[in-house]
Amino acid sequence: MTNALVNGNTGLESRFDSMNLSRSAYVPPHMRSSQRAASSPSPSPSPAPSRNGWNDSRGGAPSSRGGFSDRGRGGNSFTNNRVAGGGQGWGERSTSQNWSASPREQPKDNQMFGYGAWKDGQHVVGGRNMRMEKEIYGEADDPSKQHTGINFEKYDDIPVEATGADVPDPVTSFTSPPLDPVLLENIGYARYTIPTPVQKYSIPIVANGRDLMACAQTGSGKTGGFLFPILSASFTMGPRAIPSEPNGYGGRRRATPTALILAPTRELVSQIHDEARKFAYRSWVRPAVVYGGADISQQIRLIERGCDLLTATPGRLVDLIERGKISLANIKYLVLDEADRMLDMGFEPQIRRIVEGEDMPGVHDRQTLMFSATFPRDIQMLAKDFLKDYVFLSVGRVGSTSENITQKFEYVEDNDKRSVLLDILNSHSNESLGLTLIFVETKRMADMLSDFLIQNQWHATSIHGDRTQRERETALQTFRNGQTPIMVATAVAARGLDIPNVTHVVNYDLPSDIDDYVHRIGRTGRAGNTGVSTAFYNKNNKNIVKELVELLREANQEIPGWLEVSAHEASFGGSFRGRGRGRGRSGGRDYRTGGGGGWW
DNA sequence: AAAAAAC
Hints:
Mean pLDDT: 75
Shape: globular
CATH architecture of the domain at 2-34 and 399-572: 3-Layer(aba) Sandwich
Helix content: 25-40%
CATH topology of the domain at 2-34 and 399-572: Rossmann fold
GO molecular function: ATP binding; hydrolase activity; RNA binding; RNA helicase activity; translation initiation factor activity
Domain Helicase C-terminal: 404-567
EC number: 3.6.4.13
Low-confidence stretches: 1-111, 144-151, 246-251, 574-586, 595-600
Number of helices: 20
Number of strands: 17
InterPro entries: DEAD/DEAH_box_helicase_dom, Ded1/Dbp1_DEADc, Helicase_ATP-bd, Helicase_C-like, P-loop_NTPase, RNA-helicase_DEAD-box_CS, RNA_helicase_DEAD_Q_motif
Largest sheet: 8 strands, mixed
Structural class: alpha/beta
Strand order of the largest sheet: 4-11-5-10-9-6-8-7
Radius of gyration: 24 Å
Keywords: ATP-binding, Helicase, Hydrolase, Initiation factor, Nucleotide-binding, Protein biosynthesis, RNA-binding
CATH superfamily of the domain at 2-34 and 399-572: P-loop containing nucleotide triphosphate hydrolases
Strand content: 5-15%
């Protein structure tokens, strides 16, 4: 049966506004509101600037090539044409032209508008390119482009602990120095105002040549946390001296990136790449991205045109290294993002091969930054092998332990889940522009549930690993821009993805790992905004009930009585899967400091 | 047990 709304439904009912009689029959008409997509001011934010867009300005380049052309459509990233390079890299890094930093002095037909170069040991900054700025930074009022960090002040509440030898003092604002002035301008274009706690520490840590091990999630501003210091130093210092074999490998030049970022999922690397494009603007650094499921020859063409900061999933990168298209000999900066997740997914062999088994400079000849939500033993081993004298940064949870996310629980048997879900969607539909992300455990369930929702007149889509990359990208795009404000997802979307405006996360199926739960609800309430999460609990979820209750208590959430009872029963009923499984639930701590016996 | 990821 459906013991609905156990944890209260505070005030939602009083806020519905419009009506929609085409809705499912589960809720009386007065509780229905119009489909969110329909009320969205602009379902497809900017009508493709492509064709006669700036591709034309560079002399008739095929628009499929650069990929900028596609991106205007949904405001976001994923299209097959934009597999690598972000459309950048026309011409070599050191062209003979002498660019001026001042836009007024740029020749009008300069095809390098927006791109800089490194020439004779100097950073030659490219002129501004307004079309490109609109493209990569978005319109100020485009919600799908909006950066999540609206309530930045709230970041000050996030506790940060830095340990290690001689930890540099954190910065308090974006300034030059220590940041390169060009980067500072780009940060301004991207409308970032105040550094997040991770960024405050990572900027001076990297600037001082130190390695970093950070326990933090994506919502903490971690992407900027590694992009800012790496790009800043790159702008100022230039690339590593090109080794002896710059050309002629397989007839073409091999890409020799200065910075490499590894992340577990395709969507995540694409998202990081989008950020990289913002901050590399007008500089000599050409960002590129490679991942599986997309046409590899297209990616090869693009990295050949410029690949200084490469974001990659491990499998595709290994493939490209084997094909001789990428050399890591020039790497100065290595980032492992979501390291625990990558190990969970079995990437360790590929990662070790990339870092230790190819031509990447050794640990003392590069700077390495590792990010991980947790710090279990296998990550510690990786840190021991990949990092040197690192600073350990522990960043408090942005979501769960703060009160930004209201966590509701409902006792729902499996057979009742669909019906309860419709109830919930209806009662939330008045929050007009918010997005709803629904997590299920299996790919099959993701398909079935999204079909079911569509049958019930909801604009829903789904994302999971059995869909083609194309479908995944489309799903994410229409979700972000509000055309399908409901997305059913498997674990593929659980971590790392930064989707602004997700106001509601539904754990239709609870995960069996408490960390997964934390990551999932962390898709809402991003960056200090508030969000709601609803979880369907039943007897099949007893394996995490104890940890759930602990978590709720920590986060100052209301705990339904029946949930506490269930937790109490579980602690006697044998089947506890102890906390000692090698993984603390909190962000982790620096085991080097001793600190009186960790929990692993 | 399922999910993710190279072809």
